C-alpha cells in the first residue's frame, strides 16, 4: 500500500473496529500489530455483551446502551463485507434473584429500564421454571433482559479482518512489521502496552493490566440466553460451545497461564448449571485486560502528540462498546467532532 490516510496501531477489538469504521467512509487504512491479531485480551473466549444495571444512570451507561443497540446492524455489515460470521446474536440474559430484597430491587430496575432503554429492550422479572438451562433461584424468580448479546471473540476479529481486507485495508502483524514511517493520523489501540506508554508519558498511572482466565466447554445451547450467576458469565456460542468466565486477578506469576482459579470457575459453572457437569473442557485461556485508572474507556487526542489519538481501556466491556467507540473516534480523527465523547472518557479526565 502507498502511504495510508490513517494508521491504526493494535489489532484487538478496538483497533480493528476503528479501522472498519474508517474504511466504511472511504479512508485508506493501515493496521499495525506488533504481535498477532487478538494477542491480548481480545483473543479470549467469553464474548458477553451485557449492559450495566438500569439505575444511577450516567454517561458511561448511556454510551454503552447506544453501542449495544447499534451492534446488530454493525456486525451484520461486517459479515456482509467479509463473508465471515462473528457469532453475534442478541439472545438475552438470565440472572437468579437471591431473596425478597433483591426481588424488590429487580422490580424497580424493570420499571427504570422501561424509560432508560427507550422501549428497545426489556428488563423483566419472570418466574423460574426449573428448565435445564436455568440457574437455581432461591427466590423462585429470575431477571430476563433482552438487551444482552453475545459473539465469539476470535470469530469477531476474523470477521473484521476479512471485512477490512475485502475493503483494501492493509494489516501488518508480527515483530518488525511496522514500517519506518506510516502516514496520516495515528490511532493507538494497544491495550495494556498502550496504558504503559500513557503512564510513562503522563508521569502518573494511566491504568494497569488485570489478568483474566476463561474456558470453553463443549455443550450445544446455541440459541439459549447467556447466564450471569454470582459474578460468573456462562455464554452459549453458535458453534456448540459454552464460555465460562472470568477471573479478575491483580497478582500473577504468568499472565498467560491458567491454573486452579480457572478450575474453580468451571466447578462453579457446573454447580450452577448441572447440564454442564459432563461437558468437556475444550479450551482454556488466560491474558491481561487493559483497565484504565478511571475504569472507563479512554478516547481522545494524545496530549502533546499532535495527530495521535488514544483508544484504550475497554476493560470487560470492550466488545460491547466497540461499535460506538469506533465510530466516535473516527468522527474525532476525520472531522474533529468530539461531542459524543463522555467527559469521563476523555484523556484530560482519565490521565
Relevant terms:
32% helix; D-Amino Acid Oxidase, Chain A, domain 2; FAD/NAD(P)-binding domain; 6-stranded mixed sheet; 351 residues; globular; 2 domains; FAD-dep_OxRdtase; 8-stranded mixed sheet; alpha/beta
Could you explain the architecture of this structure?
The protein has 2 domains: 6-90 and 151-206 and 293-350, FAD/NAD(P)-binding domain, CATH 3.50.50; 94-146 and 209-289, D-Amino Acid Oxidase, subunit A, domain 2 (D-Amino Acid Oxidase, Chain A, domain 2, 2-Layer Sandwich). The chain is built from 8 helices and 16 strands. The chain has helices at residues 13-23, 59-82, 100-116, 153-166, 191-202, 260-272, 318-335, 347-350, and strands spanning 6-9, 29-33, 48-49, 93-96, 123-127, 141-145, 149-150, 170-173, 186-188, 207-218, 226-229, 232-236, 241-245, 281-292, 298-301, 308-312. The strands form 3 sheets. An 8-stranded mixed β-sheet has the order 5-6-4-11-12-13-10-14, with helices on both faces. β11 (226-229) and β12 (232-236) form a beta hairpin. The longest helix is centred in the first third of the chain and has 24 residues, at 59-82.
Kindly report the average pLDDT value.
95
CATH architecture identity of the largest domain: 3-Layer(bba) Sandwich
SSE arrangement, N to C: EHEEHEHEEEHEEHEEEEHEEEHH
CATH class of the largest domain equals: Alpha Beta
The strands making up the biggest β-sheet line up spatially as 5-6-4-11-12-13-10-14
Please summarize the sheet with the most strands. Answer: 8 strands, mixed
Amino acid at each position: 500500500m502507498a502511504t495510508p490516510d490513517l494508521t491504526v496501531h493494535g489489532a484487538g477489538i478496538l483497533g480493528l473496529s476503528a479501522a472498519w469504521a474508517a474504511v466504511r467512509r472511504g479512508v485508506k487504512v493501515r493496521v499495525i500489530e506488533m504481535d498477532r491479531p487478538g494477542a491480548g485480551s481480545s483473543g479470549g473466549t467469553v464474548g458477553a455483551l451485557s449492559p450495566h444495571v438500569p439505575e444511577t444512570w450516567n454517561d458511561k451507561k448511556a454510551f454503552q446502551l447506544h453501542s449495544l443497540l447499534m451492534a446488530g446492524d454493525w456486525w451484520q455489515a461486517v459479515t456482509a463485507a467479509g463473508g465471515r460470521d462473528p457469532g453475534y446474536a442478541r439472545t438475552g440474559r438470565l440472572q437468579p434473584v437471591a431473596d425478597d430484597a433483591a426481588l424488590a430491587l429487580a422490580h424497580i430496575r424493570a420499571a427504570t429500564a422501561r424509560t432508560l432503554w427507550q422501549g428497545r429492550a426489556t428488563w423483566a422479572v419472570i418466574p423460574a421454571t426449573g428448565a435445564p438451562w436455568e440457574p437455581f433461584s432461591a427466590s423462585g424468580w429470575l431477571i430476563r433482559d433482552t438487551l444482552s448479546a453475545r459473539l465469539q471473540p476470535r470469530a469477531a476479529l476474523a470477521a473484521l479482518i476479512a471485512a477490512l481486507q475485502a475493503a483494501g485495508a492493509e494489516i501488518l502483524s508480527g515483530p518488525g512489521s511496522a514500517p519506518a514511517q506510516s502516514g496520516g493520523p495515528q490511532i493507538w489501540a494497544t491495550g495494556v502496552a498502550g496504558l504503559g506508554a500513557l503512564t510513562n508519558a503522563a508521569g502518573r498511572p494511566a491504568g494497569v493490566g488485570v489478568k483474566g482466565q476463561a474456558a470453553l466447554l463443549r455443550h450445544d445451547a446455541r440459541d439459549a440466553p447467556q447466564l450471569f450467576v454470582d459474578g460468573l458469565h456462562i455464554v452459549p456460542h453458535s458453534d456448540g460451545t459454552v464460555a465460562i468466565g472470568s477471573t479478575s486477578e491483580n497478582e500473577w506469576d504468568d499472565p498467560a497461564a491458567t491454573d486452579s482459579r480457572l478450575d474453580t470457575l468451571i466447578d462453579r459453572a457446573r454447580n450452577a448449571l448441572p447440564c454442564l457437569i459432563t461437558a468437556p473442557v475444550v479450551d482454556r485461556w488466560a491474558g491481561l485486560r487493559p483497565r484504565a485508572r478511571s475504569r472507563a474507556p479512554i478516547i481522545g487526542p494524545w496530549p502533546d502528540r499532535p495527530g495521535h489519538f488514544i483508544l484504550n481501556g475497554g476493560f470487560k466491556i470492550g466488545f460491547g462498546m466497540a461499535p460506538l467507540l469506533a465510530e466516535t473516534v473516527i468522527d474525532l480523527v476525520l472531522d474533529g467532532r468530539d461531542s459524543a465523547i463522555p467527559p469521563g472518557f476523555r484523556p484530560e479526565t482519565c490521565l
